[in-house]
Amino acid sequence: MRVKSVRAFAIRSDLVGSGATTPQTRPSWTNDAEVANPMSRYPRYKRLRSTWRPQWPSVGCLVTATDGSWGFGMTRYGSPVIDIINEHMGPLLLDEPCMATEKMWDMMLRITSPYGGGLASYAMSAVDLALWDLKGKLLKRPVYELIGGPAREHIECYATGNDTDWHMEQGFNATKLACPYGPADGVRGLAMNEEFVAGRRKLIGDSVELMLDCWMAFDVDYTVRLAERLRAYKLRWIEDCLMPDDLDGQAELRRRLPMEGLATGEHWYTLGPFANAAARHSADVFQPDIGWAGGLTGCLKIAHIAEGAGITVIPHAGVNTPYGQHFGMAIPNSPYGEYFVASAPGVPLNEVRLTPNMQTPKNGIVRPDDSPGFGMGLTLEDITAMCV
Ligand SMILES: [Mg+2]
What we know:
Radius of gyration: 20 Å
Number of domains: 2
Distance between the termini: 31 Å
Bound molecules: magnesium ion
CATH class of the largest domain: Alpha Beta
Structural class: alpha/beta
Strand content: 5-15%
CATH superfamily of the largest domain: Enolase-like C-terminal domain
Number of helices: 13
Order of helices and strands: EHEEHHHHEHEHEHEHEHEHEHEEH
CATH topology of the largest domain: TIM Barrel
Helix content: 25-40%
Largest sheet: 9 strands, mixed
Shape: globular
């Protein structure tokens, strides 16, 4: 079986939440909460990340085989990524054997090497996920079996977001906060961050794991000062503290905070940064996003690099997609799945699915659908309806 076509297109990016019918009990924290971010130093863009992030739609990618079978992948960043797939890498993959996911991943990496970087990695991810979905359908097995799973009965999930009381009500036993303040808020921001974390620790008690996501907002010095202040609240890890390219800074964080759990990698693309961090053991948890860092093939390679260094891999928002759920079912050094709670309190989690068959956490655990491929339950008509 050969690749007959590779086609990318814009899809609606508001899929999460669009199926909800139960009224919310209050608006989601995401509506207006300030989150420390890389642009916080510029006052006119400080208050909300939406003031400076691009409005590009999400991206769907359909790979079709010579017998008419197909697979579907998803990623982000609209027309730049769509152009990379449709006008560059896609046509060069035609007539390749459908099963050759390793070869095609290597081809895509090399094809895009003259420009490379994040956007190329998003494009590779969409094609790779579509190829794995196709492979599962051709072999009539769920993808997690094709990659050596299951490693476990179900995935234990943690909930990300600042509606902590709602997460506890949903039965999660681990939760991660988005840090509100950063270096731009000075010493007062340090105190307000401490007050925020202390309040949440008091709410959840000592038997629930608590983590803090810093979304590229800090520098080494600020991270060390904040970590010192937060020591009493027993954070499982602090995450994504530095700008993504600052690999030396990450190693310095490890040196200055030897006892702190450090997680990062959400904005790292393909293998280089992960190999660097594994060699220096500059993080305890790698967090590649399966739709951004090189797809399933990329995340499997990252997981193996991590395994050799004694590092765990908990993909960014892995439980929010069928792709990440299949990875989480199969990979032994992936002890948790992240579920970003994008819906408002009061709305049952299973009302906000990305695809018809996608499973959502219940009492903090999830198990992906077992049907072939990624078990998304999508038809070609559904995919057409998703197009913008
Ligand atoms: Mg994060």
